[in-house]
Design a protein that fits this description.
The protein is an all-alpha fold. Helix content is 64%, strand content 0%.
């Protein structure tokens, strides 16, 4: 059975409630993890942009997990989940906070420039990927999807087959 239409909004609301109202970000992350691993339909229909936004918000506001935010955005891109305006706002808020700080754990572990590289990748991941269109070349026709039918329906005079024989 497919999930109910309110399922992705319910996941996002539960994550936000557990994070903000009950001050339990670990439970908010476990809600997303549970929906992600419950079943394929649960992951596809439940882990949509609002749920990913709550995941990003939780990882950043509660844990300052820059790598976790980066991984969530990469996962969104890989799974075809489109970022929205809130995703862009979260990335902008994150960029401002990171710019204000001087020492980061990632800098000392991975070397100079890692945080800056992650920030630029995060900004790239929040941009909607344009839909790919087939290129139209002047003077050259692209084959139609039913082109094979034309070849099969052409009458071949040399085969000498006739209907009923």
């Amino acid at each position: 059975e497919f999930q109910h239409l309110t399922y992705p909004y319910l996941i996002a609301h539960l994550m936000r409630s557990f994070r903000d109202k009950y001050c339990d970000p670990h439970l908010a992350l476990s809600i997303f993890n549970y929906a992600q691993h419950l079943s394929i339909p649960s992951y596809v229909f439940g882990c949509t942009t609002p749920a990913y936004n709550e995941l990003i918000e939780t990882r950043w506001s509660c844990f300052h997990d820059l790598r976790g935010v980066h991984d969530a955005l990469e996962e969104m891109r890989f799974n075809g989940v489109e970022p929205d305006g809130r995703t862009k706002k979260l990335a902008e808020k994150l960029r401002r906070k990171v710019g204000a700080r001087t020492i980061w754990e990632e800098e000392s572990v991975f070397g100079s420039g890692e945080v800056v590289g992650m920030l630029s990748k995060i900004e790239q991941l929040t941009i909607k990927e344009p839909r790919r269109k087939q290129e139209k070349r002047p003077g050259k026709k692209l084959p139609a999807l039913d082109a094979w039918k034309d070849d099969a329906l052409k009458e071949d005079v040399e085969d000498r087959y006739e209907f009923g024989q």
